[in-house]
Amino acid sequence: RLEGTNNWFLLQPEFQKWSNSQSDDASNIHSVLACFGMPGAGKSVVCSLIFDTLDTQFSLAERACVVGLYCDYQDNKNQTPVKVIGVLLKQVIATFNESELLPGDTISALRKHLNKDNFVDLGEASRLLGGTVKQFHKFHVRIDALDECDEGHRR
Hints:
Blueprint: H1 7-10, H2 13-19, H3 43-57, E1 64-70, H4 81-99, H5 104-113, H6 122-133, E2 138-144
Parallel strand pairs: 1-2
């Protein structure tokens, strides 16, 4: 990406409000910034810009975490809800490893499932991710091309 590409997006009031929202503000706790457009319009480039901006904007001292993934219609078997949550959880754990704040119950659950083919069920994966991200004051998830996932997995 060329320097300065799509910087106009970062100046939009909608983006500014979303990126500056606080998790302790109940009205913003589940805020979503969605980007819609035709194929090839540049949504993935904007998504990368947002991810890079948030990643550099926040520090571990602020107890912030930025994670994300790109979906691919050619890889639907690996984009099940459990595996998507697992990918996000793995990134959260990597962030925690830098700060040494990983909750003990998460470590225990991960060790329990380490040698199994089927990591965890959807409920446990969601519980682990939800419990882990509560340690952060800000938590941003970027999912690009969600419409490329199997329709049955997008619930």
